[in-house]
């Protein structure tokens, strides 16, 4: 195993020499003066340099793998938090008033946002199918703004949110009837910046 | 002017009157004030379009042009079209004979080739008075040219004006939104349902197309950049211009009659307010204080707008002087009646505002006098929304998801006649263009 490594390393410089970028004229090369005329010495130096580069690359990949694992672990640990953060809140007909049920959900969101000052959210306002297309855009916007204002009241900088209204253009449930309508009168949440690094007191078991 | 003709049809009118009484369909409003669908029976004078004569090389065009003109006159809902059976192209016009067959108007036409197209000559005979009421020459491009049908429509509108003294609406188009697979795009179609053309291909949500007064541009909202921004499409070049990309909403555009200002709704301090974008820059026009103001429509004088506001709770229609006027409620025309009312459109000929209002829980097209009062229910079958006036100030186009399978429909507000313009699901937000072609000066009224 070890032997094969050596062979491979010995062969590689020959391939790599041709690929190496020529040093710019006037700029000293990495192994200047002493090895300029000795072709074998140059190959050896290149080989050493390459081994060093490969070692660095392996370390970099290992480090990235570690970070990825950490991030995945953290995501797994914070997945329930993210779920709470992006949980949809619903509204009454033609209303932007925060219902008691929505209030509970928004207070938990506020706690998460306070514990993670880097997080930024997009709040999307939506309306059901009954109203007018154009008026529902205004209604959706008002719902998104009402959520923003509510979270601001609970100590979250309103500048951490962007709001958008889709009116009735993006229903959660297709179809007519109160079942569909009540699911479509809503605000949705998406993380647009930052990460969840802290689990707030309110969500700890 | 047509009094004699009216007197001559007294018996018919009496019969129509009885029919009309039967047709007064009541519609009970949720609040308790009755809104009725009330169309007065109309006398439609008989109209015969004689076969057009075509000079050598224009025979085919003569048939095609006559068919377009005849259908335009039918769609004007102002005449009862009579069969021209027995008439041959080029026969001398015998107005008395056609009068006996029930025609008040006789249209004579001839077509001859000219460089780059055809010359169409039309003469309108008043069969009751035995006079020529109007005549004129119209230059048409070649039959395959893009402007061919629109040039013929302009001739039809001239005929309507000779006969009635009022503007027609044949030479116009309708922009609208159509729901496709996961996207909404803007399309344009001629007033007679021909020449369907797609305008946007964003694969996003495009909404609220609004015609510029010269018919060359459409303002609209698109989500294609991730948020509802306002754009202007040059229909000649296909180029788009960003009009407004403020945070929040940039929706419901409307051009002023001089075409220099666009009014629209945008987010200000968390509320939806009306703003105008014009030579003086951006100006906020409403102070809703967290209530919403949107969907502006200019009066022909350019100084007032009709718009939607929910400052009293449910959305209602208001009229306001631009530049700091006090909004005045106009959709409470029946005392105490305050149904959800949106999507106003101010008639280009002045006096009326059409919108849709919730009646028995369903959107119906309604119109009121711009000064308030005079409310009239115009539809009562299915769900009918987003009316827009034709340039004749008489017809409205509206969208319905469920009437006869859904689509866009053209309503004559005088007779109540409805015809389908486009059929199917997913049609919405139609906007009827201004006149897109006018008859040349040579088309003068006679006498």
Order of neighbouring strands in the sheet with most strands of chain A: 1-4-2-3
Over the alpha carbons, how many angstroms does the gyration radius of chain A reach?
Answer: 29 Å
Question: Structural class, judged by helices and strands of chain B?
Answer: mainly beta
| Largest protein interface, residues of each chain | A-B, 20 and 35 residues
Largest sheet of chain B: 6 strands, mixed
Rg of chain B over CA atoms, rounded to whole Å, is 23 Å
Helical amount of chain B: 10-25%
Could you report the average pLDDT of chain A, rounded to the nearest whole number? 84
Proportion in helices of chain A? 40-55%
Strand content of chain B: 35-45%
Q: Please, could you describe this protein's structure?
A:
The complex is a heterodimer of chains A (205) and B (447). With 205 residues, chain A is an alpha+beta fold. Helices cover 53% and strands 12% of the residues of chain A. The two termini of chain A are 50 Å apart. In chain B, strand 7 and strand 8 (131-141) form a beta hairpin. In chain B, helix 3 packs across helix 5 (148-164). The model of chain B is unreliable at 1-33 (pLDDT under 50). Classes of the chains: A alpha+beta (205), B mainly beta (447). The A-B interface holds A 94, 131-135, 137-139, 141-142, 145, 148-149, 162-166, 169 and B 184, 205, 207-208, 223, 226-228, 247-249, 251-252, 265, 267, 270-272, 290, 292, 294-295, 308, 310, 314-315, 340, 342-343, 356, 363, 385-386, 428-429.
In short:
Chain A is of the alpha+beta class and 205 residues long. Chain A contains five helices and four strands. The radius of gyration of chain A is 29 Å and the shape is elongated.
Could you name the key traits of this structure?
heterodimer; A: 205 residues; alpha+beta; 4-stranded mixed sheet; 12% strand; B: 447 residues; mainly beta; 6-stranded mixed sheet; 5 helices; 32 strands; 13% helix; globular; disordered N terminus
